[in-house]
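Researcher: Checking consistency across runs. Here is ABC transporter ATP-binding protein again:
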Amino acid sequence: MITVDNLVMRFGGFTAVNGASLTIREGSITGLIGPNGAGKTTLFNCIAGVLKPTSGTVTMSGEAITGLAPHQLFHKGLLRTFQIAHEFSSLSVRENLMMVPADQSGETLWNTWTRRRRIAAEERANMKKADEVLEFLTIDHLADEKAGALSGGQKKLLELGRTMMVDARIVFLDEVGAGVNRTLLNTIGDAILRLNRERGYTFCMIEHDMDFIARLCDPVICMAEGGVLAEGSIAEIKADPQVIEAYLGTGLKNKVTAQ
């Protein structure tokens, strides 16, 4: 579905992504791991249109999408979440979801005067869908709570819910488990698996929790120093000497090998 070919992202004299090439298969949950500073989030930002890469290409189902803006990719079904949730804190959880669908009639001032019935019908449909999403994520009891009052894990569920309000084809998750307690992390994992298996969502996720990666992801791609270091199952990645060295350093790698 997504093919990244020889992607480079430079910031002045610093190269954050250095010739990275990878493929994200349609219908997969692909894990992206690597030590801090490996270029994972910068790669996400290049794919999702937050950054325009210095060179290289990104294609989606054979269509060139390199350098397209986030709103253009949104309409193509490519969405991303962030390590720090971006909710509308003063709106309710339900209202946060209802804002997601694009091109709502109520967004145009003229329509608020001339097409009130259409606006009301759209709002009823969006509210119904939002309630279905909240029930799917098992947070329907929070529908009327202010989004800013949610816990970190609940905000991550809300971000996942926003991807469900549109016809997402592929979702990039940036450390969805960061700062989330184990119970909520399991809930998030269950939701991702159900979306993948029941609704055909494709996911690519950056994550440091290896147990979470092992439960959800196949394949797993490891990055280091801006490039792709290894790819395979979680068992293959954990056993790869280059991956061990990237995470632990040469000295610890030799110690592990000796043991």
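Researcher: Does this match what you'd expect to see?
Model: One thing to look at in this run: The chain has two domains: 1-77+168-259, 84-166.
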